[in-house]
Amino acid sequence: MDIEGTGRAAAGVGDVRVLHPLRVIEGPTGVDGEPGTYGGVAVDVETSGLDHRKGRIIELAMRRFRYNRAGEITEIDRAYEWREDPGEPLPAEIIKLTGITDADLAGREIDEDVATRVLCSTSFVAAHHSNFDRRWIEDRLPRARGLRWACSMEDIDWRAQGFDGRSLGFLLMQAGFYHCGHRASADVDAMIQLLRLRFDDGRTALAHMIESASKPRWRFRARGAYYAVKDLLKERKYRWDSDAKVWWRDVGDENREHEEWWLAANVYSDGRVKALGPDIDRITARNRFLPLDLGDPAPQ
Q1: CA torsion sign, 91 to 93 to 97 to 101?
Q2: Which domain holds residue 269?
Q3: What stretches of the chain show up as alpha helix (H) in DSSP?
Q4: Are 246 and 272 part of one and the same domain?
Q5: pLDDT score, position 297
Q6: Cβ atoms of residues 192 and 73 within 8 Å
Q7: 153 and 67, same structural domain?
Q8: Is residue 22 domain-shared with residue 85, that is, in the same domain?
Q9: pTM here?
Q10: What pLDDT digit, counting tens, does each position of 129-161 carry?
């Protein structure tokens, strides 16, 4: 595997791994062939806590890029970055994690108009943990709600491509680079560089992500499931939502019928179950990574 534009292999030479500092340069990437006629925007947030209902964004970064039909990034835009005063002292663990202090944030705020305009100017928004970032961004920038989202962590099968783990910094190191992690702008650049990675099948990580994100999915909520089947659900990769108090899982369109049969045989065959069957909702790029209560469907 090779990072486009660098010629460096991720594995290094022999038993030595050489890591290079990550430098994402604004402008054309030097990709030959078809020009980039499509656009995406990579985003990342740093926050004052983990719960978007209680905390605030303290740092927001984004960078647009253009790509062609082959999923090759042909041009990289300038970096946008804002800090924002949350109105209360930062927890000590957030200061330690990010290096951002209360003094760094005093009197600062996100330029809501510019940030919203950038997000709405491309085909899709992507983060490395969109299930986290999307909720924070849409709470802070309500005019950017309902956009198409992708996730470089969820929408790329990194293990199938020879990587261990899915954390951004670890993936980047396996690709031969290091960066200053846990800062929004650095994480945006790390994600863009990973999306330029070309896998052994000749396709880029970006092409894999777009293909996966564009596929319809179905969200299964195992409503009324009896407590005794929780281990079966966990093994099936269902997740527990403590707010909705339900086990849930998203599956691809091709697996919907199989999932219905599995639930019927393993969950809803139990006489103690409190429902006749699961709740099933259609998931698209516009309503992915949102709370389980999807509310009114976004326009297709």
Answers
A1: positive
A2: 217-283
A3: 92-98, 102-105, 112-119, 130-140, 168-174, 184-195, 205-213, 230-235, 256-266
A4: yes
A5: 38
A6: yes
A7: yes
A8: yes
A9: 0.87
A10: 999 999 999 999 999 999 999 999 999 999 999
